[in-house]
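yo

u said u wanted the structure for the complex thing, so here. seqs first:
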Amino acid sequence: MPDTVIEATSLAKSFGSAPALDGLNLTVRAGEVHGFLGPNGSGKTTTLRILLGMLRADSGEARLFGSDPWAEAVALHRRLVYVPGEVALWPALTGGETLDILGRLRGGVDGNRRVQLIERFDLDPTKKVSSYSKGNRQKVALIAALAADVELYLFDEPTDGLDPLMAEVFREETMLLRDAGRTVLLSSHVLSEVDAVCDRVSIVRAGRTVETGRLSDLRHLQRLAIVVQTAHELHGLEDIPGLHDIDYDGSILRCTVEAESLNDLMTHLSAAGIVSLESRPPTLEEMFLRYYNRAPA
Amino acid sequence: MTLNDSALGTDTASTVRPRAPFAGMSVLIRLGLRRDRIRLPAWTVTLAVLSVSIASSWDRLYPTAQSRLDLAHTLALDPALTAILGPVFDPLSTGGLTAWRSVAGYLLVFGLVSSFVVVRHTRALEQEGQSEIIAGGAVGRAALLGAGVTIGCIYGLVFGVIAASALTAMGVGLSGALAYSATIAFGAAVYCGVAALAAQFARTSRGANGLSGLVLGITFVLSAYGNGEPSASALIWLSPFGWAEQTRAFADERWWLLVLEIVVAGVLIALAMRLAQRRDLGASLVSARAGRDRARAWMRGPIALAWRLDRSWLLGWVVGSAALGAVEGVLLASSVDTVQNNPAMVKLIARLGGSGILADSFLVVMVGMFALVASGYGISTVLRLRSDETSTRAEQLWSAPITRVHWASGHVSTAFVGASILSAIAGLALGASYGVATGDLGGMAVRGLLAALVQLPATWVLIAIPSLLLGVRPAWMSAGWIVLAWCVLVGWFGAILGLPDWASSTSPFGHLPSWPGQQMRWLPEIILTLVAMVGVAVGAMALRRRDLPS
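structre next:
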């Protein structure tokens, strides 16, 4: 197996006059769970479709297992599975029939694995697809994918329609895939999900890769957003390293803080007497607003 | 598809009362008409123009009173033609001939079109999920169905208004023009009611379309049988086709039949409304049973999948056309019988080549009609590939280790094979039932089957059109329907409209030999088959090269 499973270089693609991709780079190494992070409409699905040989890039190069995904589509598809973001199935078939058909298209279904996954995802396979909710249709596609014994798993916003319990099951299954040495590309707009399972991430915005690397290296992504009110006025905020986006009106402080500086900030705050404190990780939208809007890669 | 914000705003503010069952309906009607802004004028204007063209053709075709009386006399002797078109009530007036020639055909078209429109605006929205966005607004429980039925009825009414004005302007007579247009529009409203009910019972839009098509077919056959077989003439009163014909537009109109149409339409719609308000959104009255938890062993690959998905749809079409074929066979026998009991006609027919010729030429006309029906089945089946692509179904198959051509070969093969089976079985049923009536079951069954096979290459060409477009320009695949409509127009109305000869040569059906009856010609058969094959092959090549439509 080559070290690099997916290698995309300066991909560009437009639909009519609207550019969908504009110099996208993506490298996914064998055996890693790679997060593909970006807001809606940033080009994640278009990238996946190019990697699957469904679309042809206008320029740039895409390689899957070292081959051209357009020319070698059938051979490459034997080695991967894909779950689209919006799962549409055949309303007249049952969930069980759908699982078997999708499985047989790639050579067969492992009966034990099928039973095990149906149980884990709590799916009734005898129901017609037309009576499934969006989440249940999503489960059918995910079970079909997870039951496949392949090298690469491509998921486009897989937990979108799932409840938190089922999203957790999916995360656990993804971890198991990694433990078994499989490669996973997980597209998402939910930072916490990517944070929980991914080794490395690529962040895209407006069809370009703006950041890529290990999550722990992307320190600024690990900042906490803080809103705090203190009894006494705060001084010397500028002296705390790793404190950003400071907005202080003499009573309420809004800022973001890097993990390393959290202790310093807290010491400082408690000296002034904390009245109330809120903290949360930044949302993806905030991240984009803060770091990428004014700084294109 | 933008809904005007201000339109929504004023409606919710001023006219919507909480819990009113029809709250929000006017907005939904406007939204629906906006969605149908092309197909509504296309259907209504085209068909209104066609009816005016038919009306203006009579003076050219049958200029004298005597020629019209002769026509009526001949028609009276032909139960098979009378079965399909209904009796002619006033052969002397232009209006009377127009009504005879077009009422049944128009009701067939508008019955089908408006019931599909109703389903498109009701069950289809529930199946795809848009109804949830709608029902989440300040919208009453009956508003969605009410809007769908209204839009369906608008098709017939718009046609009626245009046709009535145009015919009156031609000077055929106001009251006749009114009765003619109204009986078609109100008859179509009956089928809107049928579709509204079907949308409550079926879970999918395909199922609802199938159910209403079935009712349309049954009522058409009822009136055809009643018209053609005097001993069964009471049957026509069970069918909106009978009511529309018996309205006797331009021949001492029976206005009360219009009232009957409105009442029946109203009752069906009211029933559907009651059901719609009692059931859950998205649910159907036929509850979903638990199905198989494993797929059958033969279900592997896109071709098996396509057969699994298409088989019940195909079966419905086969049963429908076999039944129609069998009925027409019986009528054909009694038609030939009548002719043979009439010495004058026998002499006339003998001069033309004998009564066998009459049966044969009728056979060709009938299998030609079934071939058009089969083409419609084939086109609709190839179009399923388009809906696979516009949802993510195609993506899931494309990401499997199969080629795109393999994927497309699923529904393309069910289209070609299914349409051929459909045609063959209809021809076989037609020949067999004629054979039973004339005491030559085996011979006539084979003759009917062969006559149907002669038509196949033209059907294949029509199915090849959307198959070609699938590769070349998938967004235009529904153009297959336009070509089919054109073939129906030139094939069935070309002569009466006085279309030039080249018009009929634009239809693949215009090149087929009229066998049996005339000499068999193989060359057009071979050329049409080759054309179809090239179309499919070019489509397949283009499919391999293009992007997934976004």
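DSSP finds 22 helices and no strands in chain B. Chain B touches chain A at residues 127, 203-204, 288, 290-295, 299-302, 305, 308-309, 312, 391-393, 395-403, 547-548, 550 (CB under 8 Å).
cya
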